[in-house]
Amino acid sequence: MSPASNQAVQRPDRRQCTIKSSPISWTHCSPVSKTTQRTNTVGRRLAFHYAPQGPAMSNTQISTRQELIDHVVAASNSGSAEMVLDVVQRVAPELVNRLLHAEITSPAATALGSGIGASPGAASGEIVTSAAHALQKSDEGRSVILVRPVTTPDDVLGMQASVGIVTMHGGMSSHAAVVARGWGIPAVVGSSDVEVDGSKVTVHGVEFTEGDLISIDGRAGTIYRGSIDTDQQQVPPELWQLLDWADTITNGVVSIRANADTGRDAQRSLEHGAVGIGLCRTEHMFLTDDRLPIMRSFILSDDGETQEGFLKDLEQAQERDFDELLDVMGERPVTIRLLDPPLHEFLPEADELFVSQGAGELNDERNELLDAVVKLREVNPMLGTRGVRLGAVRGGLYEAQVRSLCRAALNAISVGSRPKIEVMIPLINDPAEFRLAREWVRGAQAEVDPEGMLDDSLTVGAMIETPRAALLAREIAQDADFFSFGTNDLTQMTFGLSRDDVEARLLPRYRSLGLIDDNPFEVLDQVAVGTLISTSISDARNEKPSINIGVCGEHAGEPRSIAFLIGAGCTSLSCSPYRVPVTRLVAAQTVLQSGSTVVSGESFFPDASATANAQTESPPDQTTDGGVDVESITDIDVLRVLRLRGFATGDGLRQSLGVDPSQVVERLVADEQVNFIEARNMYMLAPSGRSRIDDHLAASDPITELSDAYESFLSLNTEFKKVCTDWQVRDGEPNSHDDDDYDAACIARLRDVYMRSEPVISEIATAVPRLNLYRRRLLEALTAIDDGQSQRFTGVMCESFHDVWMELHEDLIVLQKIDRVSEGSF
């Protein structure tokens, strides 16, 4: 008997792993026990959407540099996917941080003060208390640490020139923390031990002046007197190999982007493995020496014509910035957030101006600045005139930004590039507000691009950072091409806490009282903020199944938050460039522990030999139900199924093709285009077979006739995923299946999905007749469920309804050449 004729369904042992191009899973075709669920910490974080059912990997973490090197080398030499997955799962995320950032090496060092460790790394340098002094001393070749009460956009250039940053106030989401992480600069923020008085600095009672040496540890949040030895070893190449493997695992599930504001930031992001920019804060482009005076003149001017002149100057300057950014990013996605902060942040600090006024040091220009600061100052600027509200009260500001962006995009097109631009409107609160802002964007685009060359490459989305926007996600999604959650502000507004005030004072006390477990500005609060995110994603996708969902807050780079965000349905995570490597690893570990995600079938070992096969590839004859006549089975039919399924038994191939393909399979095995895994009685593509089917698909045109029916399928797909989740998870815990009425209701909902899918599948089968076979397979699974075979609901590799539906979805995506990540429907 040939291997292909064996009809037994082989279910993988939980300790085994399977790399697939359709869903990856290590579960038996039965529910996960509550005991298993409770031992899986990621499981609790993913409970909103699915119960994780990952492989039982080794519990021993890889936590040292040498262990990482040894295990990666061993996995590389083995050629074993199982060893690769085991290594990826076991590497401690903290190890990645340690390998990328300097550490204090002196064991005798005693901290003088402490604060919040906001950006990892260690540094020693001279104290400076102003951005101007930081720039001056840095230009002289001296290492400086900028110590400020707080930082504002006015300090950015001085921050960039410093080797470290310390602030009296603020927290993990403060300006100082976000900017420092973006540039990889060690930072200690919100230190109650620090006082700044002019050029004098006091740390826990010890006085310093500008020029004195201090050291900081941005991971531990500690401050030291004098210069202390630090250690920055060369990053081992094995780390980058590990992260390449991680990207293979997450391909098709979630993309990791970076927050970057300049061409240099973008280049740094790519070097750390980002696949795009998820947040470009355009306000940072106005803070350079040549831009800030123009911006201030625009703010101070009351005359419309004069304001328009300054806006044109800003347009030209920002066009150059966008040119640089798009040149670096090429055809990778770039999310541009229009101006967000209140205008007074582009002006000097009011307190500093008042001090100068009291000393009689203000000239006419500085007095005018003080008047403007007083006029624009708000009691609560975080809830004041910022974001889209700024675009409403300062007409033309957003339009000017969009015109400069569109010109830069057209410049890129003129040299052969195809930029992918996502314009993001910040602080949206209402659907009508978003529609108005979208009109601003499209109107400005039309001024620059009357031919509509950017219509397909420029999308407009909403930044969801207020509870009201999250609750109105369904309505906003009607007009939005994408959502991006700003989790920093969403956390602040949900808790009603000022993030810059409470992290150093209130939150430590709350933690000591047991009122909170973690700082919610560092670790995502899943109880309330998480519920808002999860609910709004569900609502948005019910309205528009294809909407893209991202996160651009710093929670996207925090290991304990990443699993929840992926489980909630986010398809892109964007964080500071230096947090990208950790995010890549943790995202892969999350996928490995998930029982219902999609992983690319790309090989971990791309250098494996491939052989060509020139056999004629003619379309097969179809039977009435979509199956293929056994005499008409071709190599391509079998290779296509294996590409869709990743692995398949002989019985699985028969189910997908409708006939027994034994003879063709035997020939492909003999030709080394298909591998037979004897231990599991399964088949998978060999490198040459994968190359052949990929070449075949690349040469095929997308089947556009499927598009209308596919939209109907996506609508059903949202309902299907929800009923599968409810079958597996009930009230945040795995469904124990001890409530017959609850299970019966889930089955009834599944039956309704099937009944409504029949005409949709019939319609798509008019374009591709073989697709009609899926209808028969789904009905067989549903009938088996009705007969008591509950594993046929969401079980894996047992021809369950979920198996067949996901295979159909993947088939439709391949036939239409859809980018799965951009679409976000999985």
Could you explain the architecture of this structure?
The chain has 4 domains: 3-8 and 604-617 and 625-686, Orthogonal Bundle (Arc Repressor Mutant, subunit A); 100-229, Glucose Oxidase, domain 1 (3-Layer(bba) Sandwich), CATH 3.50.30; 242-342 and 378-592, Phosphoenolpyruvate-binding domains (TIM Barrel), CATH 3.20.20.60; 704-823. With 826 residues, the chain is of the alpha/beta class. Strand 5, helix 6 and strand 6 (144-148) form a beta-alpha-beta unit.
Features of the shown structure:
34 helices; 28 strands; 8-stranded mixed sheet; alpha/beta; 4 domains; Glucose Oxidase, domain 1; TIM Barrel; 8-stranded parallel beta barrel; 826 residues; Arc Repressor Mutant, subunit A
Furnish the topology, listing elements before pairings.
Layout: E1 23-24, H1 34-38, H2 41-45, H3 65-78, H4 81-90, H5 93-100, E2 103-104, E3 113-114, E4 116-119, E5 122-128, H6 131-139, E6 144-148, H7 156-160, E7 164-167, H8 175-183, E8 187-189, E9 194-197, E10 200-203, E11 206-209, E12 213-217, E13 222-225, E14 230-231, H9 237-250, E15 255-259, H10 263-271, E16 277-281, H11 292-300, H12 304-329, E17 333-337, H13 350-358, H14 364-376, H15 388-393, H16 397-414, E18 420-425, H17 431-448, E19 458-464, H18 467-471, H19 473-477, E20 482-485, H20 487-495, H21 499-502, H22 506-512, H23 529-543, E21 548-551, H24 559-568, E22 572-575, H25 580-592, E23 597-598, H26 635-645, E24 647-648, H27 650-657, H28 662-670, E25 674-677, E26 682-685, H29 687-699, H30 707-728, E27 729-730, E28 733-734, H31 740-767, H32 773-786, H33 801-816, H34 820-823
